[in-house]
Amino acid sequence: MNQPSTDNQAVSGQAPQTMLMHLGRVADVLFALAMAQNFLILQEPEAARSLANQEIINFLWSQLQPLSAYAVAFIVVGFYWFEHTKRFKFYKRENELHIWLQLLYLMGMFLIPYSNTLTMYFSENTIVKIWFSINTAFIGFLAAISWLYATQNHRLIDSSLDQKTINSIFYYALIEPIFSFLTIGVVFINPSWWDYIWFLLPIPYILIDKFIQPN
Description:
Elements: H1 16-38, H2 53-62, H3 64-88, H4 96-110, H5 112-121, H6 126-151, H7 163-189, H8 191-197, H9 202-211
């Protein structure tokens, strides 16, 4: 008689470490592609050799908005990748539900280049900026939910991992989604501020490091 499956059972009979390795590779590839695709919004000058000095200057000025959008998206994806790798090293096994949570997380991450392109082409549109913020918040909350699920009763992590470390990683996972929702409020106050508020994202990470640093 077959035994019922458990939360800790490996997916489809594969070794837990094998599944983790596959998921880790998929995540690394998608993060790299998301970062690279953000760069594609930058334009190349047409007939560059024939441009006059003033035309070159005008072109460079016209690229400030795309460069700003690229920098924001790169920072967002970069922080998510960094936090993802910190969480991933604690996983010891996988199950189907957690894999689906991870795939939804990566799907949201891969939408970032599209959302970023919208902010470049419709830079003054409030709805587009709200969409970008919701996209990043969706990713962050999925990361937090995924971590909560994995750490409940040490379901998918090592039993020796202490609660303080678990809580600290959870707090880190909440930074970007909460920050993203705050940027929605900034849009309604002054849409032009939204483009620059993202550069403050490292500050809450620094504060968490200072006041809630695990032993």
